[in-house]
Specification:
alpha/beta, 6-stranded mixed sheet, 3-stranded parallel sheet, 7 helices, 20% strand
């Protein structure tokens, strides 16, 4: 990316950025979104909320964890975090990590998944362990999925404004293409997400 910018080639980063790199980017406020989603679970009576994510240095993943941790700390609760190695998730072992974690933490009453593919793994685990978990646990996930609306218990989520994100990316690209210097005043556009509340996050 640094070389592209040095060569004066227009670059816009999507969904993530690098703190040390001056580059145009379009992102959402992951920390705020995760904080608000966690508080929603807490306000609905959940006290042992697990946060399941992947071990990653990506900015969006770090901010989602930070938002959860701030909400938990603000309400004097104990954080319960499972960070799954990135390669293990995509080797198909995410389900095993989630299953073992839930078995060894029977006190958990809600789960916040940091991505929708982790949520899909988790929902499979709930089905395998005990189908009642889908209705007994509080469930929240980051990123929506059409299937989440039609589960027996519909799944609450943080939804990213995909149309607005893509529009802003193209606006930036066109500005850069029409300019002479891509290194001139890089823009960081931070958008708001939407918290979509369904049955899974309701008070049990």
């Amino acid at each position: 990316i640094t070389n592209l910018i040095y060569e004066n080639i227009p670059v816009v980063l999507l969904d993530r950025f690098f703190d040390e790199l001056d580059c145009n980017c379009v992102v959402i406020d992951n920390e705020e979104a995760s904080f608000n989603a966690s508080v929603e679970l807490i306000n609905n009576g959940f006290r042992n909320i697990a946060f399941i994510s992947m071990s990653s240095s990506q900015t969006q993943m770090k901010d989602r964890l930070l938002g959860y941790e701030k909400a938990i700390e603000n309400h004097a609760l104990e954080p319960k975090v499972l960070l799954i190695p990135h390669n293990e998730i995509f080797n198909g072992k995410g389900i095993e990590y989630i299953k073992n974690y839930l078995i060894s933490h029977s006190e958990i009453d809600a789960v916040f998944f940091a991505t929708n593919y982790l949520a899909q793994n988790g929902l499979q685990v709930f089905k395998d362990l005990n189908s009642n978990l889908l209705t007994n646990l509080g469930i929240m996930t980051f990123d929506d999925n059409d299937m989440f609306k039609i589960y027996p218990t519909s799944i609450s989520c943080v939804a990213q404004p995909l149309h607005e994100i893509s529009s802003k990316v193209m606006e930036l690209i066109l500005q850069l293409l029409n300019g002479n210097d891509v290194k001139k005043t890089p823009q960081k556009i931070v958008l708001k997400s939407q918290l979509i509340l369904r049955e899974s996050s309701c008070r049990k």
